[in-house]
Write a structure and sequence with these properties.
The protein has nine helices and five strands. The chain is α/β, with parallel strands linked by helices. It folds into two domains: 110 residues; 74 residues, no CATH class. It has a five-stranded mixed beta sheet with strand order 3-2-1-5-4. Helix 1 packs across helix 3, helix 5 runs antiparallel to helix 6 and helix 8 runs antiparallel to helix 9. The N and C termini lie far apart (36 Å). The model has no long low-confidence stretch (mean pLDDT 93).
């Protein structure tokens, strides 16, 4: 999703959110740190919006007006995907690290996940596209692998502790496949 399409989508989401906080929780959160994200971000047609401490009504309105089955998707080719904390795994302490997004463009209540929190979330999700995102974000120097590993390993203290080693193994393999052996060794250690 290009930044122009994302901004239009977010302006519409803000208009129906009645001042409630909207958090970019998918790859588009990279637009908070760069105007030139990896192609995988621009190729995506969905923007995950994390809604915390909001009522079900906002989820339903965003889904109806901007979601996967909306006229908005038909007209623009992009859509919003509202998610809650039951859908996304975030490392401890993520909220104070949120990055204000688009305030100069009328998006006062929009925030983005900090890039390492986003990366930890994607690593926990563990889909092939997530590993592609992590590798590209690392190659483009948007994230530090050390910081990512620190945040991700914090999941060992929570409900997802059983998934941590498996995800780290998948990350190591993905880095090896991408010819990033020094980084793979860092994960291994």
């Amino acid at each position: 999703m290009t930044r122009i399409r994302l901004m239009d989508l977010l302006l519409r989401a803000v208009a129906i959110s009645e001042g409630q906080r909207l958090i970019l929780a998918g790859g588009q959160a990279l637009y908070a740190v760069t105007s030139s994200p990896p192609e995988v971000v621009e190729r995506s047609e969905e923007a995950d919006l994390l809604l915390v401490m909001t009522g079900r009504l906002l989820f339903e309105r965003i889904e109806a007006e901007l979601g996967m089955r909306s006229d908005y998707l038909v007209q623009t080719g992009v859509f919003a995907h509202p998610v809650g904390l039951g859908t996304i795994s975030l490392p401890r302490g993520w909220e104070p690290r949120l990055v204000a997004f688009g305030g100069d463009e009328g998006l006062e209540n929009v925030w983005a996940l900090e890039v390492h929190d986003l990366a930890a979330s994607k690593l926990m999700a563990g889909r092939e596209k997530d590993f592609g995102f992590l590798i590209e974000a690392h190659r483009r120097e948007f994230l530090s692998l050390e910081t990512l590993l620190d945040r991700f390993c914090d999941f060992r203290r929570g409900a997802f502790r059983n998934a941590v080693e498996h995800r780290l193994g998948k990350l190591e393999s993905a880095l090896e496949s991408a010819r990033l052996s020094p980084e793979a060794r860092l994960v291994r250690n």
